[in-house]
Amino acid sequence: MVEKLIILGAGPAGLSAAIYASREGFEPLVIGGYNPGGQLLLTTKVENYPGFPDGIDGPVLVDSMRKQAARFGTRFVDDNAVRADFSSRPFKVNTSDSEFQAECIIIATGANAKWLGIESEKKFIGHGVSNCATCDGPFYKGKDVAVVGGGDTAMEDSLFLTRFASSVTIVHRRDAFRASKAMQDRVFSNPKIKVIWNSSVEEILGESTVSGIRLKNILSGSVNEIKVGGVFVAIGYTPNTDIFKGIITLDSAGYIVPKSEINTNVDGVFVAGDVADHKYRQAATAAGSGVKAALAAREYLSTKP
Asked: pTM for this structure?
C-alpha cells in the first residue's frame, strides 16, 4: 500500500500537520517514534501556548493534539524510523520491522536537547532543571539561577533570565566563551550576571526542587557549592536527522536546510518544526510550521500527476 502522506515525528509540528492533513481527507500515517511528543514531554507546565490561560502540562497538550489528529483519521505507528529512501517514488521509510511507502513526506523529527548527563539532573527536569529559558524563565521571578554553557544560546538565555531572576550565574568549563563578541559584551556589562570559569556541574542539589549545585574546578580539582533555585542547561541541541544524511540538505550542525521555508531539496518532501529551527524552538512556532507543511503537502498531492 502506498500512503498519500507520511509524517515523521509526533511533536507539535508533526501533530499539527496531521490535524490539517487528516481534515483534508489525506489520512496521514504518523511514524512518531518510541517516545512521541518531543520536548513537550519534558515540560511540566506550558504557559505560553495560545488558548490555555491557566497553562497546560506538556504531556497533556501532546495527548490532546494526538487525539484531535486521530479523530480526523490520522493513523499512528509508535516506532522509530531507521532508514529513508527518497531517491525514487514512491518514497520509502523503514522502521525496525516494516517498510512504508508514500507519495509525500513531512519531516518533523525534532531536536533533542543535550544534557549534562548526571543522575541528579534527571531527577529535577521540570522541577528546577530546564533547557528552555524562554519557556520557563517566568517561573523563576526573584530567584537566583544558574546557566550552564558558553555559546550564543547560553548568553541569550542568561540575558533573558535577568528579566525575572535576581541573579544569573553562568558556569562554563573553559576560561573563555564560544559565543560571539557582541553577545559576550552584553553579558559582561549586565550587573545581574556573573561567571564561574573552568568549572563543571558535579551534582544538582535539592529535595523536591533545586536548591543548589555542586561545582568542581577543572584546573584545581576543588569543589564548592552555590545556592540556586534553578538550573538552565544551554549546551546545545542535536537534530534528529541521522537517517536523512546524504538525502536531504543539512547544515554543519545537522539541521535541515529548507529551500524555501518548508520545502526541502527533494520535491514532495517537506519539513516542519525544530528539526529545521535552531533559533526559536517553541511549541507554537513548531505547530505553525507544521500547518504550513500540511498545506504545502495538500497542494503537492492535489496537483501532482
From this structure: 0.85
Pairing of strands 91-95, 99-107: antiparallel
State the residue for C-alpha cell 545537522: 254
What are the tens digits of pLDDT across the range 19-37? 999 999 999 999 998 667 8
Q: In this structure, are residues 126 and 113 in contact, taking their beta carbons and an 8 Å threshold?
A: no
pLDDT of 9 above 80? yes
Active site residue 132: yes
Phi, psi at residue 101, to the nearest 5°?
Answer: -125, 150
Provide the 8-state DSSP code for 111.
E
Q: Which of 104, 136, 274, 277 is catalytic?
A: 136
Tens-place pLDDT, residues 117-133: 999 999 999 899 999 89
Is residue 135 annotated as part of the catalytic site, yes or no? yes
How far apart CA 214 and CA 155 sit, in angstroms, is 21
Torsion sign across C-alpha atoms 74, 75, 78, 84:
negative
Q: Strand, coil or helix: what is 28? A: coil
* Catalytic site residue from 54, 57, 78, 132: 132
> In the annotation, is 136 catalytic?
yes
Which position among 54, 79, 135, 242 bears the catalytic label? 135
269-271 vs 99-107, strand pairing mode: parallel
